[in-house]
Automatic annotation (TrEMBL):
<dbReference type="GO" id="GO:0005794">
    <property type="term" value="C:Golgi apparatus"/>
</dbReference>
<dbReference type="GO" id="GO:0016407">
    <property type="term" value="F:acetyltransferase activity"/>
</dbReference>
<feature type="transmembrane region" description="Helical">
    <location>
        <begin position="6"/>
        <end position="26"/>
    </location>
</feature>
<keyword id="KW-0472">Membrane</keyword>
<keyword id="KW-1133">Transmembrane helix</keyword>
<dbReference type="GO" id="GO:0016020">
    <property type="term" value="C:membrane"/>
</dbReference>
<keyword id="KW-0812">Transmembrane</keyword>
<dbReference type="GO" id="GO:0045492">
    <property type="term" value="P:xylan biosynthetic process"/>
</dbReference>
<protein>
    <recommendedName>
        <fullName>Pmr5/Cas1p GDSL/SGNH-like acyl-esterase family protein</fullName>
    </recommendedName>
</protein>
<feature type="transmembrane region" description="Helical">
    <location>
        <begin position="33"/>
        <end position="54"/>
    </location>
</feature>
Length: 351
C-alpha cells in the first residue's frame, strides 16, 4: 500500500506540474521553445520534491522481480497460493540411486506441484526471482548451510566451490554478490537470540535500507550452553518484538521474513559428551514447543514463516547426517526451494 505521505506528495506534484503547464500553454502557445523549456523546468522541480516519497530504485526492481509467471508451472497457482503455504513442506524422499548408489532426492508429489505451481528453480529462475534484492541470513551453522545452498544455486559450480572456504571461516560473517543480477547475500554469525535481537534493533535500524529477504534461526547454541527452554522462549519473544518493530526508512513493504527451525538431533551421533548430555530428544521437543508458543510464526500472527528443518531432516533420515546435527546438502536444498516458492506465493499476495 502507498503511504499517506506518498499520496499527498503525488497530489501536490500534480498541482505543481499541471497548473503551471496549463497556464504556460495558454500564454506561451505562440512560443513552443519557451513553452517546452518551462515544462521541462517544472517537471524537474516536481521530480526533486517528489523523490523523497518514492521507493529507491533497488526496491522498485525487487518489486518487479518478485513475479510468479516466469517460474510458475500452473496458471491456477495465484488462486491457490493462500492454501498452498501450509503444503510447502510436504516433500517426499527417495534414494537418489545413480552410479554411487548414495544420497537422497526430494520432490513434491506431482499432484501438489501441479495444483500449487511448486517447482524446483533453475539458476536463471532463481536469479530472476531475486533480481536486485538483498538477502540476509543470520544464525549459526544451520544458517551457514542454507547460504551455501543458495550460493550453489545462484553461482556456477566453480564459483560456489571457491566461496565455500570463506563462508565457513569459524565464527565470522560473510558477503557475496551476483553482480549480473544485482543480488547481495549476507551471512551474519549470530548463534544466540540476543545476537539476533541486536541485529534487528540496532544494526538494521542504522542501515539505509532493510533486507528484502531476512532468514533468522537459533537454538542449538542456547540448548548446548544454557539448556533452559523457558529462557530460550523469553529470548525468542524479544526477537519477535524486534522483528515487528523493524521498519524501512523508505515507503516499501517489510522484508519477507523466515525462521530456520531446529534439525532432528541424532543423540548417539553427536561428537562431544556435552552435546550428548544437553542436546537430547526431550530438550529438542521443549525448544520446538517454545517456537510454537511464543508468537514467532505467521500462523500465530508472528512475522516469520517457518522453514521446518526438523521435518525435512526427519524425512531424509539419519543417513543424511555425519554428526547427528548437520545434514547433507539435499536437506538445505529442499529448505531453500521451499523458501523461494514461498517468496513467489507471498509476492502474489502482496500484489
Amino acid at each position: 500500500m502507498v503511504s499517506a505521505a506518498a499520496q499527498a506528495g503525488v497530489v501536490a506534484a500534480c498541482v505543481v506540474l499541471f497548473v503551471p503547464m496549463g497556464l504556460a500553454g495558454w500564454h506561451l502557445s505562440r512560443n513552443k521553445v519557451l513553452f517546452f523549456s518551462g515544462a521541462l523546468f517544472v517537471s524537474l522541480a516536481v521530480g526533486v520534491h517528489l523523490s523523497p516519497y518514492l521507493p529507491s530504485l533497488p526496491h522498485l526492481l525487487l518489486a518487479a522481480s518478485f513475479h510468479p509467471h516466469p517460474i510458475s508451472s500452473s496458471s491456477s497457482s495465484s488462486a491457490a497460493s493462500s492454501s498452498c503455504v501450509p503444503l510447502l513442506h510436504r516433500v517426499s524422499w527417495a534414494d537418489a540411486g545413480g552410479e554411487s548408489g548414495v544420497g537422497r532426492a526430494w520432490a513434491w508429489p506431482p499432484s501438489l506441484a501441479s495444483t500449487c505451481g511448486l517447482a524446483r528453480l533453475s539458476r536463471d529462475d532463481a536469479s530472476l526471482l531475486l533480481n536486485g534484492s538483498w538477502v540476509m541470513v543470520a544464525g549459526d551453522s544451520q544458517a551457514r548451510l542454507l547460504v551455501l545452498a543458495l550460493l550453489r544455486l545462484l553461482l556456477d559450480p566453480a564459483a560456489a566451490a571457491a566461496a565455500e572456504p570463506e563462508l565457513f571461516r569459524r565464527h565470522s560473517d560473510y558477503r557475496a554478490t551476483v553482480p549480473a543480477r544485482g543480488i547481495s547475500v549476507d551471512f551474519v554469525w549470530a548463534p544466540f537470540e540476543s545476537n539476533l535481537t541486536r541485529l534487528l534493533h540496532e544494526d538494521l535500524r542504522l542501515a539505509p535500507r532493510t533486507p528484502d529477504v531476512l532468514v533468522l534461526g537459533s537454538g542449538l547454541w542456547h540448548m548446548l550452553h544454557v539448556t533452559d527452554a523457558a529462557r530460550y522462549g523469553d529470548a525468542l519473544a524479544s526477537v519477535v518484538d524486534a522483528a515487528k518493530s523493524l521498519r524501512s526508512p523508505l515507503p516499501v513493504p517489510p522484508p519477507h521474513m523466515f525462521w530456520l527451525g531446529l534439525p532432528l538431533l541424532v543423540n548417539h551421533m553427536l561428537n562431544t559428551d556435552a552435546k550428548k548430555v544437553h542436546m537430547n530428544d526431550t530438550m529438542l521437543q521443549a525448544y520446538d514447543l517454545e517456537v510454537e508458543q511464543r508468537g514467532l510464526l505467521q500462523r500465530d500472527g508472528g512475522p516469520f514463516l517457518l522453514l521446518d528443518v526438523g521435518k525435512l531432516s526427519r524425512g531424509c533420515g539419519q543417513q543424511c547426517t555425519a554428526d547427528g546435527m548437520h545434514y547433507d546438502g539435499d536437506v538445505y536444498d529442499a529448505v531453500l526451494h521451499i523458501m523461494l516458492n514461498a517468496l513467489v506465493i507471498e509476492s502474489q499476495q502482496r500484489i
